[in-house]
Amino acid sequence: MSLISDRISKNIKPSPTLMAQSKANELKAKGFPILSLASGEPDFDTPLHIRKAAEQAMNSGYTRYTPSGGLKETKEAIIRKFSRENKLEYTLNEVCLNSGAKQTVYNAMMATLNPDEEVIIISPFWVSYPEIVKLAGGKPVIVNMNPDKGFHLDENIIERAITDKTKWIIINSPNNPSGLIYSYEELKALASMLLKYPHVNIISDDIYEHLVYDNAEFHTIAAVEPKIKSRVLTINGLSKAYAMTGWRIGYCGGSAELIKAMSVIQSQSTSCPNSISQMAAIEALDGPQNHIKESNKEFAKRRNLTSQLINQIPGLKCNIPKGAFYLFVDCRDLFGKKTPNGKVLNSSVDIAEYFLEQVYVVVIAGSPFGAEGFIRVSYTTSEEQLTKSCAKIKEACELLFK
């Protein structure tokens, strides 16, 4: 009898983004001159006023268990946030806190999926969605959007994937990995179609909500079409916009029935979110927001620089996204090219491995995101590091065209 379950050994893959970053750290520790463009977290410090709130929480005794769904005070801050920023009204029993938005998705799937029920996942997607669905016993159904049309939503393609077993559809805007922001019109068309299918629920993963550039507008589907609000679980968190990845606070708004079930899952797994982080979350949500505008200015500069440099590299091209902090780089023109060692590049994994082995630059292959032929490049590091990394990638690509 194997110690490891079939669920893990045969069905679930480790996160490729975390693996890539771990491998980069390993190689760096061994003395290799690694340049990583893999990170999915801001390189800024958590704003000082939030850190001070955490210190105050510790000094005030907020160091014990909280209710599984989170502190009342923090829930109230979340309710204010949803109302103020998204025009969504929730009550205390319709919101909960989790140890990061990833756990929010996990709890929702564990609380709702029966064996072989289906979850539609729109490509490109965050790498953890399919694995979480499989962990919960469900079946991920990947629906591919057209890369040559910028991966924009096509509700007709999505509708063809709906069956009697479809329980959820997951949308993520701004999108990881593409940076695409779904427009009001796209979301309205999707929601209008879903009105015909009352058995289909919607997860709206809004974790990159505040990371928008060029005066782009963010919309969330429950506000775009209030008729489906009762079927939407709106997910958000503090990791990205507030540079709080390690604080592990995610939150959501949804039906009281679903929130209650998710809290049961949490009570039997992690018990509750970190108490100190919950108190800091109140300050993050209610306190000054100027730091978001400042960090977005820096991200936009890095995005512009990196996209300009990438588009000068033979075999690579990318659009300039209006959200998140990634470039999704089209590398299909490198397929079939032979490396100096004689290996033929046939996939985005091959290309990512080539960049790592040839010039010590870490990028993430597009295939785990459901988009073969692309690589994800993060611009959450300094302009100096971005410039060096792109120069190295250019050097590697030029070797392929000799």
Describe, in plain words, how this protein is organized in 3D:
41% of the residues lie in helices and 13% in strands. It is built from 14 helices and twelve strands. The protein has helices at 6-11, 16-29, 48-59, 72-86, 101-112, 128-135, 155-160, 184-194, 221-224, 256-267, 275-286, 290-310, 348-359, 383-400, and strands at 35-36, 95-98, 118-123, 139-144, 166-172, 201-205, 232-237, 250-253, 326-330, 361-362, 364-365, 374-378. It has a seven-stranded mixed β-sheet with strand order 2-8-7-6-5-3-4, sandwiched between helices. Strands 9-12-11 form a three-stranded antiparallel β-sheet.
Average predicted local confidence, pLDDT: 95
**What is the N-to-C order of secondary-structure elements (H for helix, E for strand)?**
HHEHHEHEHEHEHEHEEHHHEHEEEH
Per DSSP E runs of 2 or more residues, the count of β-strands stands at 12
**What form results from the Cα inertia axes?**
globular
Helix content, binned percent: 40-55%
- Helix/strand structural class: alpha/beta
Task: Give the topology, please.
Blueprint: H1 6-11, H2 16-29, E1 35-36, H3 48-59, H4 72-86, E2 95-98, H5 101-112, E3 118-123, H6 128-135, E4 139-144, H7 155-160, E5 166-172, H8 184-194, E6 201-205, H9 221-224, E7 232-237, E8 250-253, H10 256-267, H11 275-286, H12 290-310, E9 326-330, H13 348-359, E10 361-362, E11 364-365, E12 374-378, H14 383-400
Parallel strand pairs: 1-10, 3-4, 3-5, 5-6, 6-7
Antiparallel strand pairs: 2-8, 7-8, 9-12, 11-12
Helix pairs in contact: 3-11, 4-11, 5-6, 5-10, 12-14, 13-14
